[in-house]
Structure formats: structure tokens, C-alpha cells
Amino acid sequence: MSGARRPGRSPKYRSRYRWRENLQGYLFAGPWLTGFFLFLLGPMAFSVVLCMFKWNGITAFQGNATFVGLEHFRTITGEDRYFGVALYNTAYYAAISVPLGICTSLFLANLLNAKLRGIAFYRTVFYLPNVVAGVATIMIWRWLFNPQFGGFNIVLDKTGLVAAGRFVIDAVPGLRAFVTRNQISWPPLWFSDEFWAKPALIIMSLWSAGGGMLIYLAGLQNIPKHLYEVAEIDGAGRVRQFINITLPMLTPTIFFNLIMSIIGSFQVFAQSFLMTGGGPNNATLFYVLYLYRKAFEHFEMGYASALAWILFALIMGLTLVVIRSSTLWVYYEGEKQ
Amino acid sequence: MTVFRPRAGEPPNPEAVEVSVSFWGSYEEWEMWCDIAAGFQAKNPGIWIKLNYIPNSYNSKIRLLLAADNAPDVMVIQDEPFPVYAAYGKFADLTDWAYSLESGVDWDTAFWPTAVESFVHQGRVMGAPIWGGNILVIYNRKMFRDFGVEFPNDNWTFDDFVSNAEALTRDLDGDGHIDTFGLSLPHWIYFLPWTWGFGANYLDERRTDWTFTGPEALAATTFYHNLRYGLGVSPSIQDMPGSAVEAMFMTNRIAMTAGGPWSSLGFRTAGIEFDIVHIPVGPAGERFTRVTWDALCLFEKSPHKAEALRFMAYCISPEAQAIVGRYVRSVPALIAAKDDFMDPDNGWNEEKYIEALEYARMQPISAKWVEMEQIMNSEYEQLLLNKQTPEQTIRRMAEAMRREGVFPIEAAP
């Protein structure tokens, strides 16, 4: 905007024009703003209040809710053993699924960035899992992880990995005793085994790697081609080009995906809710599943709200750490060094 | 032949008052509700019964609908979650209706004794019992015959039960792995008849305190644990990876299981050769089983209470209870309909479920049943994974009940 005045337009006209323009803007944003205030900001504000009350969520708040101050937070951090279990399970899941998901998406994006015949078809195929109905997906994964006739254990068996695993268990000193003591199954019983249940859900999380892949693909296509040409003239091979050009130029995309993945992984819920119910022996009791139980099975809305705000603080803290660290590893083209 | 009878859509009479009814269950149960609704509508063309079939996670969904004050007019409710909902005042008080001519029955004498009692909250009737059942032993006749084991009789004891289970646990191909098991280890709820047989109880009769302690509790828990780890007559997770108990029973890999009439519905449909026998007599010379009932509850804020009550009256009438009986899904709550439940030609003794009502008892349900159940599930899971001893299980359950504030409860619901 130059700010130059149009000849013949009075200040009154300009003010009215600006007002009309603003109104149009707000009208267009209106549906979203209504939804935001009614269904997000309103409930969020109410949940801040709820944190300090005991309320079952079924009876009317007025007259039935009891003020307890910060008692819920004290109980959660001091006495609630399931809070620790849920937090550990979620952190375990996030610590493995986030880097694994990023690497897989990046790998797929690199493969699908090639100029090949029918590449659009392959891109569609890898993105397809993201649009397949959740329940259908879960049914497929249930079958894949079936210990008796599931796809994974059949592959493990046919490729000799079951036999190799048994050999390693017997060959490594102390491993057999460890496996027996901790009742770790081999071949894996997946969702029926405490040890394997979380890895199974982590493997399952790769199913949606296509979403991240698409974003990386867009990032890859924005990298100027001349950088690769210069590198090639300088004698850099594919690996060197990837390390010195692709990765640095993709860091803003990786940064975005990393933040989104961290947030998503701490909110993992549907998989354990539908497939394991938090078991076996609370091995897949994730934070949001525990929160759900408190809210909608035990009807402790205040307690559940406190859990939700603790989760919010944790995610916010982690996100801030990642943002602060980004100055060390994220490269923005054109930014002053 | 199964005929698909669509129930969705608009009522044939556009001026009909719509009464929504929620229930869970299998396809057969949905068919039964279609029959009941059709029977009612034939007599009440001004009322349209909208069947709200929730096959999965029924209780969670009903809880959410109640919380949102958007529940169906009439809901089938189990006795387990009933005290919680009733305490929240979400169900209409049916006392006056129950004892009036409108209900169509003599409330004190028409139903099986424990059926009415299960749905009374603070002295008020809050549910019209519709059906129920108890836990008995269902056994695979083919396996008993093939292995030369005599069919169990009604006088069998815990010792006979164990020796039968041992005789049916076999390594058929000699590879060192057990191929057939005597029984599937029941969930602790289905194991209640055995727990009671040892003289142990989880709650006191006032439903306010945890009583699962002492030598009786230890004997029951040790027996439970031994069936899997001491005697090895029941498969562990490793022995039945990914297989459902029902599938193992139907494929002749498990010989006995504990269940109610609803459990045998699938076996019947699949044409499995099975029968039912009473719970064995316990060490103290007595036998027990748990009876459980479901009722129709009326949503307090239903806009069509009068019409909903007419439908409820029909459901507990001899006509509708006969439909319930014919499906053999559950024992009809109305005593007069017991003959409809029994079919002398079906090849198995469903009448045992009626006979067992004589020695059946209720598990007292507390207002904190959900919390109690979750603690018990967690501790029993540890026991059945062999990660803690029976002594530890009992101690940890009692500690958790206190620590989590589940017990003691100040007043009975």
C-alpha cells in the first residue's frame, strides 16, 4: 500500500469505505469466529473454572459443583498413580513415533519427488491412508497384528526373523532370563503383550505418514534447482546434496511438521480407545484416554479439566522449547545470518 | 430365513407421537425389539416407536446422552450402572405408575423377586424389569463325549469341576503344547459364583464398604489363579493369541465356559452341540450364582412420558414377555412368561436358568461401581498375567479402593 491519497475522495468517504471493508472482512470471518468463540474459547474458559470445582457433568453446575481450589492439581501430581503411567506411555509413544514419522515422511517425499511416469499415481497411493475411514483402518490393523494369522507375524516367520529372534534370545547372556521375567512374547503377541502393545501402535502411526509426506513434497519442490546444479558441478553426489542442500532448505518444513507431530502425538487417543482400551495392564493408557475416562466414565469433570490444562502446559512447554531451538537449526532463505 | 425389516424412516401415521427406545445387543436382539415394537404399534397406531439401536459402547453413549440431557425417552439399563444414573436424578420416578392399574401388573408378585429390587433407588421404583439371567456353566458336549468324560450332573462339586477340566486339557499331537483346555477362565464378574462358593464377598450388603479380605477371599483368589497357573486347565494369553473364547469353544478347543443365556445365543446360531449345567457346589456345601437384570428406564425430561409409559407397560405385559422368552436371549422378568423361555425340543437345558433363580443372588452394586470395576480389572489382570500373587492382589485391591476414595461410601445409594 502506497498510502497515496486518491484525488477527490473526502476523509469522510475514506473512513466509510474502510469501515465497509472491515465489515465485509468480519462477515466473511463470521462463521469461523462464531464457532471459535462458542465451541472453543467458551468451553476453554469454562474448563479453567472447572479445574477448581468438583462436578459430575451430569447434574446442573449451579448448586451441585463444589469449589476445591487447586486440590485437583495436588492430587494429580501427588497421589494419582495413573497420571504417571499415562504420562510415561504418552511420552514413550511421542519420543519414538515423532522422529520415526518424520523420517518416514521425508523418505517417502524424497522418493516421490522424482520425475517418473505415473508419479501422481504413487503420490495418491501413499496419501490414500489419510483419507481412509478410521474404523476400516483399525479393522485392517487388527488383522495385521493378529498373533496367529496376522500379516506381521507371518512375515516375521517366513523371513526367518522368528527363528533368528529365538536364536538371539538364547545366545545373548541373560536375555532369556530377562524375556521370561518380563513375560515378553516372541513372536510378538502385539496388543496382548504389555511390551509390544506400544510399539504396535507406533508402527500403526506410520500409516498416516502420507500427510507429512505431502508437506515435505511441497517443500522439496520449492528448493531452487540451481542449487543442485551448482553442487553437481562442484562434484557433490546425491547423499552430499541431500545433506548440504535438501535438509537445510527443508528445515522450515521439518520445523512445522515437528511441532504438529509433537502436538498430535501427545493427543493420541482413538487407537488405544478403539483397539486396546488402554490395556494390557495399562500399557496403552495414554494421557487423553485417561482424561476421557475421568471425564466420561468417572464423571469427574473438574479433575479431567485439570488434566487437560496440565496437558496443555506440557505441549505448550515442549512447543516453546522447539521454537527456541529453531534458531539453531532452522534456515530461512533470505533471512539475515 | 432372516427377513430384513427396516425400522428407520418416517412413521406410517404422520401424526403419531414418536417415542425413542435405546438398547444394545446382537442382530437377533434387534429383531426381537422389532417384534416388540410391531406388537405395540399394532395396538397403538398413534405412537411410533423409534428404535435407537446402539450395538457397541452402549453405556458410554447413554452416559453422554444423559449428560447432554438428550437421552432417548426409554432406555434399557443394566443393574450395574443403574445406581449411578438414578443418583443423578436422570430417571423418572415410576413408583406411582408401577403400583397403578396402568402398569398392568401386580408389581410385588408379577416379577422374579430380585428383578424389582434391582431398580429401586432410595425406596422409589426407577425401572421396569424386562429381562435378566444368571451365570451357569456352558459345556461343549462333543468334547466331553470325544474325550470319554461324563457329562456333568447337577450335583457336581468344585472338585468334580476341576477334575473334569483336567481331563479335558490335552496335548493331542504330543508337541509339548496344550491343544484343548478344560475351561476358559471367566472374567471376575462371571467368576462370582465360585468366589461366593468360597464364602467371599466384595461388598457388604449396605454397599458401602469393601469386604474382600480374609481367608475366604484368599481361597477364592488362589483357586482363580490356580486354574491357569497351578492346574493349567485354562489357557493364558500366550495359549490363545488373538482368539476369542467363543471361537475356541466353537472349534472344540475349550470345553467349558461360564455364561448366561445371552452367551449361548451365538452357539445356538452356529449349531454347536452344547448344554448347560448348574454351578458346582462349593467347599461349604452350597452353590451360588449371580442374577442380573435389565430394566426399562424413563428419561426424566422425556416430552412424551405418557406414551413412553404405555410402551413400557406393553413391554412387561405377558404378550411382549412371551416374545422375550421365545428369543431365549434372557429370562423374561415376568414370572408368567417363564414357559415361553423353555423349548423342550431345542436339545439343551435352558430351563436351568429358571431353576437357578432359586439359589441366585445379586451382587450389590455401589454408586462407585465403575471406579471399583476398573481397580478390580487392573488388579485381576496383574494376577492373571502372573505378575502378582493372590495375597498381593487382595491387599492391593483393598488399598486401591481406599486410596482412590471408592470406599467407604458414606451412604448407600
Give a description of the structure:
The complex is a heterodimer of chains A (337) and B (413). By secondary structure, chain A is mainly α. Chain A is built from 15 helices and 2 strands. A two-stranded antiparallel ribbon of chain A has the order 1-2. In chain A, helix 1 (11-50) packs across helix 15 (301-329), helix 3 crosses helix 14 and helix 10 crosses helix 12 (238-266). The longest helix of chain A is centred in the N-terminal third of the chain and has 40 residues, at 11-50. Chain A starts with 10 loop residues before the first helix and ends in an 8-residue tail after the last helix. The mean pLDDT of chain A is 90. Chain B is an alpha/beta fold and 413 residues long. Chain B has 2 domains: 17-133 and 292-352, D-Maltodextrin-Binding Protein, domain 2 (3-Layer(aba) Sandwich); 136-290 and 365-403, Periplasmic binding protein-like II (D-Maltodextrin-Binding Protein, domain 2). In chain B, the strands form 3 sheets. In chain B, strands 1, 2, 3, 6, 11, 12 and 13 form a 7-stranded mixed sheet that branches. Chain B has a 4-stranded mixed sheet with strand order 8-9-7-10. In chain B, helix 1 packs antiparallel against helix 13 (318-327) and helix 16 (369-384) packs antiparallel against helix 17 (390-403). The model of chain B has no long low-confidence stretch (mean pLDDT 89). At the A-B interface, loops of A face helix 2 and helix 16 of B.
